Amino acid sequence: MTMKLPFALLLSGEPNCGKSTLAYHLVQKRLRNCLVIDGDKHREMQFLGEKLGFTRDDIMRNTDHVIKLARFAQDQGFNVLIPQITPYLEQRQAMSKVLDNYWEVFVYAPKEVRMKRPNFTDSELIYEYGVPDLIVNTANTIDTCVNEILLMLNSWNIDENTTLPDGLREPGSDPR
Q1: What domains can be seen in the chain, in order of their start residue?
Q2: Tens digit of each residue's pLDDT (9 = 90 or more) over 39-50
C-alpha cells in the first residue's frame, strides 16, 4: 500500500480490547514502513526519567510525547500505528491536528471478553467517545478486524476527484 504522505493510525479503546495485538498483526500481515508506538510500552519507558501516573495531566503529557515521536517518524517518511487508550477527546483532537493522514479506529470488546484476556486491567478512566473513522469489535477474530482496517486504509488511498465512502470523513477533519 503506498500513499503520498505517511499516515498515522490511532487504535484507541479501553484496556485489554486488543489495540496492540491489532497493530502488530497489521504490520505482520501487510503494512510496511511502520513505526508502532505502543501506548503500554511507551509509558513503561518513562521518558526523561519522569514517572508519569494516570492523572489527566500525566495522560496528556504522555500523549504530547507520543505526538512528537509520531510527527518525527512521519517527517522521516514512516507510517505510524499508535495503539493507545487515549480516553480523552482532547488527546485524539491534538493528534488529528498535528499528524498527517490521521485516522482513528475505535477498538471495542465487551467487558466479558476483555476480562478473559491475559493481564486484564480494569480502569476507572471514563472514555470520552467521539466519531472514529472505523469501529472494530475484537470479539471477532483478529484477521476479521485486521481486514476491516486494511479495507478502510485502501478506501482512503484516493485522488482528489474521488468521493469518500459513506460513513467516513476526511483525515483530520472535525465531524462535529
Answers
A1: 8-155 (3.40.50.300)
A2: 777 766 665 567
C-alpha cell at 83: 495503539
User: Grid coordinates standing for 126?
Assistant: 471514563
**What is the number of other CB atoms lying within 10 angstroms of the CB of residue 150?**
15
Q: Is the separation of the CB atoms in 123 and 14 below 8 Å? A: yes
Element of type H or E holding 34? strand 34-36
Cα separation of 175 and 86, whole Å?
18
Angle at CA of residue 70, ends 49 and 64, nearest 5°: 50
CA of 41: how far to CAs of 10, 49, 62, 172, 174, in Å?
Answer: 15, 15, 12, 26, 29
77-116 tens-digit pLDDT? 999 999 999 999 999 999 999 999 999 999 999 999 999 9
Strands (E), 49-160: 79-83, 102-108, 134-137
Q: How confident is the model at residue 173, as a pLDDT? A: 43
Position with higher pLDDT, 156 vs 116: 116
CA dist 30 and 148 (Å) reads: 13
Backbone conformation region of residue 46, classed left if phi is above 0, alpha if psi is from -120 to 50, else beta:
left
